[in-house]
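Self-study notes.
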Amino acid sequence: MPTSLVHHASWLVLGILVVSLPACHSQNERIVRRLTLPYARSSYLCDISCSATAEGLTEGNYYRTLTLIDGRLFVGGKAQLFSFDTTNLNTIESVPVEGSCVDCEDNYIRVIQELPNGNLLECGTNNANPYCQQRSTQNLSSIGPMTSIDRAASIVPFIWNQNSTGWLLTDDLKILVGAELQLIAAAPGRPAISKSVLRLDSSQNLMSISVALSTKDELTVLYANGPPNQQFVGDPISYNGRIYFFFREVAAEFVVDRAIYSRVAVICEDDSGGKEFNERYSNKDLVTFVKARLECSTGTSFPFHYNEIQDIYYSNDSKVVFAVFATQPPEVASSAVCAYRLDEIEALFLSTSKFRAQFSDGELWREVDTDPVTSRPAQCPDTTSYTDAQYSDILGKMQLMFDTAANKLHYESLGGARSNPLLMIDGERFTQIVVDENVTHNTDVMFIGTEKGTVLKAYLKDDRSEAKVVEEIILKPHRLTPVLTMLKSFAEQSVFVGTDEGVYKVPFQHCRDYASLQSCVDAQDPYCSWENGTCLYSRFPDICPPTPCNESRIIIHNCPSSQVSYIRHLHFSNHPLHLYVTAEAARKDNLSIVDNEITCHPCASLPYTESRSVSTCREFLALHINGSSTERENCSCSLVLEIECGATKTINFNITVDDSDPVLDTECLEDVADFDCEISRYKFQFDKWICNQAKSCGLEELHSCKKCP
C-alpha cells in the first residue's frame, strides 16, 4: 500500500476510535468532566479589597500553626510566636521561642491551644525534644514553667514537618490527637492515636501532660509492607460519644504491592483501656479503635481512585466532612474534593458489615465470618471485661472494616448512591480546605489551598452534581509556595492562610471591586449581587424583609440648618462653601433625591456628589454640596429626600452673598502688617542664632555641629 494511503488509513482508524469512545460508557452513566487550567478568573491577593498580608515575617519559617483566641490571630513558626490584629494583620506581639537546647534554632511551634484559664498552651518540636509551656494571651513574654513531652507519646510532633491532627481538648481535660507513627528502637508499636490527660494546679496553671491510652497495631500490620506511616490530617471530630480521625497510610491489606489508602478511624470517647494481660497487651491500649477505607473515586465503570487524603473540613451544622485528595509525585498532578455524611460513617462502624483480617502471614486479607466478640468496639462496650483471648481477637480481627466509606452526594438522604467527587482538577494538587456554609440558598462555598500557593474559590452549581471554580487567588506573585494551613473566621468573614513564607487574610468576598454590572455578573460569585447600581455582598438577603409603608421613615443625621445663613464669599477664593447631608432609611426603601436636584431660588441648582453605604438592613446616603459660585444674589435652597413608599423629608437652607472689597478693610490690613513684622523679626533672630552656633563649632553649617566634641 502506498505511504499516503497508509497515512490516510491510520487517521481514519484513529477518527473512528475517537468518535466511538463515548460508547464505552453505559447510556445512563454520566461521563466525568474535569476542569482544565487556567481558571476563568485569577486575582492577586494584593489587589483584593479587605485582604491583608502579615508584615515582618521571614521566608522559610513554616507558618503552619494558626489559632484564633479572643479576636487575635496567634501564629507559630520557626523559633517565633506572633499575635496579629485580625482586621489588618498588624503585629500586636512577637516573641522569640528558641527552645531549651544550646545554640538550637530547630524549634517549630506546632500546637497553640487555649486553656480553661484563658491563657494559651504553646508546644514546640525543640529539636526532637518536644515541650509545652503556658503563656499569657495578653503578654506573650509572660510564660510558665516548661513541661517536657516524651517523644514516644505522639502528643506533640518532634520534627518540623511531622503530620498530626489538631488537639481535641475535652471538658474533662482529656487530649485526643493523632500523630504520624515513628518507629524507634525498642518501641516498634509507638502509638498513632493517643488519649492524654492535661493536669492543672488549683490556679488552673499547667502541671503536666501524660498519655493515658494509645492505639496498638499488631506486629504483622507493622511489618507486612513496612511501617504504616500514618499521615493524619485535619482535627479529630467528636460525634455521638465517639471521636473520628482521618489519615492516609500504607495499606497492609494490599499484599500484592505497596499502596496508600485513606482512612477514617473511630474510638469511643469513654474508652478506659483493657486489662493488663501480658507483655504484648497493656491496660494503656485503646480497645475501641476501628478503621475503614475512605474512598474518593469517580462513579464510572472503571473508577479512578484518589487515594491520598490531604485535609478535611467538618461542618458542625450539617454534620458533613469535606475532604481534599491529591496524587503525589511522580504521578501526574490531579486533585479532587469529596464529601461524607458523618451519620453514614457512624452507621458503617455500627452495622453488621464484616471485618477484614489476615489469618496468617503471607495470606490474603479476607472477611471475618463471625465477630469474635459480641459487642462491636464502636458500640462502646465495657472494655475492661474482655478476656486475654477476646482482646487478642479484637486486635487481630476487628480493627479493619471490610466495607468502605464511599463518596456520595452529601445532601441526599442516608444511604444514597455512590457519586462522582464534587470537584476534580487535573494539573493541580490540593493541600487544604475550609468551607463557608449556607452563603445563599444553602450554597456552600469551598476555599481550597494548593501546592502552587493559590486559593481556589468554588461552589456547587444549581444541580449540585459538581462544583464550579469562580476564582483563583494568588497569594504572592511569582512564588510557588504550598499552602500549609487554612483557618476560617466567620467574625472576620475571611480565611487566614499560612505558608512557609507568610500569613495572609483572604476575604470571603470582594464584591466592591466589581465596579460595573457586567463585571459583577461575570464574576459569578455567590456572595455578590447587583443592587441599586452597586455590586453588593448579598449573603443575608432574607434577614432584611421590606419595611411596611406605615413604618418606613427617613432619618436625617446631619444637614444645613434653616436657622443659619451660610456665607458665600465672592472675593476670598480660599473660603469655599461646602455643606453636608447624611440620611438613613431601610435598605430596601430606595432612599433618593427627588428629581436629582438641589434647587436654589433665584440662583442655579447646586452641584453635589453622593455616596452610599449599607450596614445590615440599613442604607446610608451622604451628600457633599458645593455652595461656592460667582452668583451675587442671596439664595433660598431646598432638597427633598424620598423613599419608595412616598415618605419625604425636605431640607431648607439659605445662602447669603458677601461681596465686600477686602482691600478696604483697614483694620485687617493693620493686623496683617503687624503679623508680617513679627515674622521678619523672628526670622532675623533665628538666622543670627544659627550663625552663632556654627561659629562656636568652627563649622560653616549648623547641622554639622553634632560632630563637635
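Second protein, same conventions, sequence then structure:
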Amino acid sequence: MNIVVEFFVVTFKVLWAFVLAAARWLVRPKEKSVAGQVCLITGAGSGLGRLFALEFARRRALLVLWDINTQSNEETAGMVRHIYRDLEAADAAALQAGNGEEEILPHCNLQVFTYTCDVGKRENVYLTAERVRKEVGEVSVLVNNAGVVSGHHLLECPDELIERTMMVNCHAHFWTTKAFLPTMLEINHGHIVTVASSLGLFSTAGVEDYCASKFGVVGFHESLSHELKAAEKDGIKTTLVCPYLVDTGMFRGCRISIFHVCSSALSLTLIMLCHADVHLLKLI
C-alpha cells in the first residue's frame, strides 16, 4: 500500500515540476541584480571567463579575477576598467542632463582586483582566497569557470595531463566552494555558478579525461544544490551551465558529427538570457 501511495506522490511531484517549468518559461523571473556585489571569476584571462568578466562589469559588479596567466588576466582587467569608466561617464552625463538619480542605476564603487592563482593546486586556492577576504571582502558570486583540455586519445595522453585535467576541471570546484561557501551559509546569501560542458552530459571519442572531469563537476554541482536545499538555505542560489563546445581555443577545429564548435560570444549571450534562480542545465 505504501508503495502505491509513494508512486502517486512521485507522479504528482513530477507533473507539478513540469507545470512550474512551463510557468517559468512563459513568465520569466526577474533578472538578478549583481550591482555592487563581489563577483569572483576563475579562468578570467581568456575565453568565456573574459566574456563573463566583461558582462558582469556592465552589470556593475565588483570583480575579482583569477587566472594562472598574469598577463592575460591583467588584459581582462584593463577591459573591465574601460567599461567602468564608460559607466561612470554615462552616469555623470545623465545627472548633468537632469534625469534624476532615481533613473540611474545605483552608484557602486566599481573596482576590479586580479590574482594569479592555479586553481588546480588546493593550497594555492586557499591562500589566494584568504588574500581576497582580507583585501576585497567576502565573495557574493562565485563563477567556477577555469578549465583545460589535453586533446589526446587515452593511450597517448601522459598521466600528468590526465591528473591536471581532473584537478583544474573538477577538483578545483571543491576547493573554491569550500573556501567561500562558509560565509554564504552564515548570512544565507550568495550564488555559485558552475561552468561545466555538454560533455558532462554525453561523451564522445578522444576526450576521456575531459568528459570524466565534466561529468564529475556536474555531479558535484547537483549534489551541492540538493545539500543547500536540504539545509533550507534558500538565499544561496546555484546555476549549472553546460555549453556546447565553445570556440575559445581549447576546441578550435573540433567537430562532432555535423556540428562545429560554437561562437564564444553567442554562447555567452544565450547563457546570460537564462535566468534560473536555483538550477540551470543549458545546452548551447
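Instructor comment on the second fold: Residues 40-272 form a domain with the Rossmann fold fold (CATH 3.40.50.720).
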